[in-house]
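Hi P.,

Sorry for the delay on this. The queue was packed all week, but I finally got your sequence through. Input first:
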Amino acid sequence: MISRYFQFESRRTTLRQEIMAGITTFLTMAYIIFVNPSILSEAGMDRDALIVVTCLIAAVSTLLMGLIPNVPIAMAPGMGMNAFFTYTLVQTYGMSWQAALGIVFWAGSLFLLLSLIGAREKILQAIPQSLISAIAAGIGLFILFIGMKNMGLIVGNTATLVSLGSFTVEVILGIVGLFVSIVLLVRGIQAAILIGILVTTAFAMALGKVEFPTQMFSYDLSISAISFQLDLWSAFKWSLIGPIFALMFIDLFDTLGTLVACAHEAKLVEKDGKINKLSSMLNIDAIATMLSGLLGSSPTTSYVESASGIAAGGKTGFTSVITGSLFLVALLFIPLIGIVPPYATAPALIIVGMMMLKSVRNIQFESYEESFPALLTITTMVFSFQISTGLAIGFLSWGIIKLFLLKVKDISWVMWIIMALSGLSLVV
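Then the structure:
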């Protein structure tokens, strides 16, 4: 029955192959169970509840991706979007995490509307590749900076803005975890980031920096502290149009970029270049983001780590079913997950940021009209500590340069709307 539903024979795969692929994907992206609660808890949310919600959202959305479009792609709260949630919406804009969850829900609703009318693909086609690459690189550099800050490697300095921190035991442990992960990545170990987190936590425990939990397992999976606490009306304001659209763009580029990359790896692309069941996958992504707002997390997105499971032989949605099921199993180990300190998860931020920075190579640096807006996007995101501001300035500067060069035809009607919204968000 499983073989028939997931089309094992036509896709030339086996049950064992799909199970191993699902385990591989889980091990590659399991770090999010530790990292997402670590970031979102800085917004004032309950960390234990966040661990449960992270596992639940990853499990449900990944299972949906496997059961409906039948694709080997996993989902979870996205890196970059959780940083945007905490450091831009809550800490910079000063809004409550409840209102920020409201923005997540409205953004998810907008995603779904755009997906249903087929507009998300048109938006992606309208935005220059240099800016898309710059957005990914800028968020990557932003996350990397946050990771160094959380580790204590970088600290504030009134004279130079930032400086090198003191080499305390916690900082040294974080550095050890970072190099463990890097070496394992070089060796091609799929669970490199997860192992680095566990090694750092183990050393911290041995040195008495972390207390061993009183129980190994827990069946008390309460999420009431953060679930269904979203403030929809506080988030529905003109002054927040910038953050809502910024969140939409981040998720748009993240999701479509991942789906395109993984679809090619999984041979889900037709001869004409169209991706099979793309509409269904985008709809699930939008619904998962709305679910994130309801349960209490930043938006959910498709994970590029799915490529590891595809490389291990995953060709059907049963790979995702295995990955999603393992996230449910992880719920039993909440007490163990809860002891992981922030400096143990900081290396994961640095490595993920480094991976996202790779997109900078796609920027046409020999063309000033493309590279200058891209550079403004990247630097403004990091130096202003606001991802949405970097997006707005990047879009506007690109349009202004085109206008001065009298290349009005290069600006599509979609880009005119994006530029207008960017300008409005800066003014408001």
